[in-house]
Specification:
- The protein is mostly beta strands and about 120 residues long.
- It is built from no helices and eleven strands.
- Strands 2, 4, 5, 6, 9, 10 and 11 form a seven-stranded mixed sheet that branches. Strands 1-3-8-7 form a four-stranded antiparallel sheet, with no helix packed on it.
Length: about 120
């Protein structure tokens, strides 16, 4: 079975950091574009960051310069380093794997940035 298992979410104060990790199994990880999406209550799901099989990255304008996506093909993991977190970063964060004709989602992990 295909599984994307996330870890690292939690509650932090503004300005603090979190590192999210996603462990993939059941897929040929290295051929997938991997991404992180988030969805806050009442808002649409949005792309936060993605990284292609070749290492090219894209970021939402709101997180550029603060977040860094990376992948480790040997470990079948993708990570999202989130620095200088803001209350507007509060959302459920989802790991995503994509290639033509196939896509998979993780279960989501809550990130809350609050005093």
């Amino acid at each position: 079975q295909v599984q994307l298992v996330e870890s690292g979410g939690g509650l932090v104060q503004p300005g603090e950091s979190l590192r999210l990790s996603c462990a993939a199994s059941g897929i040929a990880f290295s051929v997938y574009t991997m991404g992180w999406y988030r969805q806050a209550p009442g808002k649409q799901r949005e792309l936060v960051a993605r990284i292609t099989r070749g290492g090219n990255t894209d970021y939402a304008a709101s997180v550029k310069g603060r977040f860094t996506i990376s992948r480790d093909n040997a470990k079948n993991t993708v990570s999202l380093q989130m620095n200088f977190l803001e209350p507007d970063d509060t959302a459920v964060y989802y790991c995503h794997a994509d290639r033509p004709g196939f896509e998979y989602w993780g279960q989501g992990t809550q990130v809350t940035v609050s005093q």
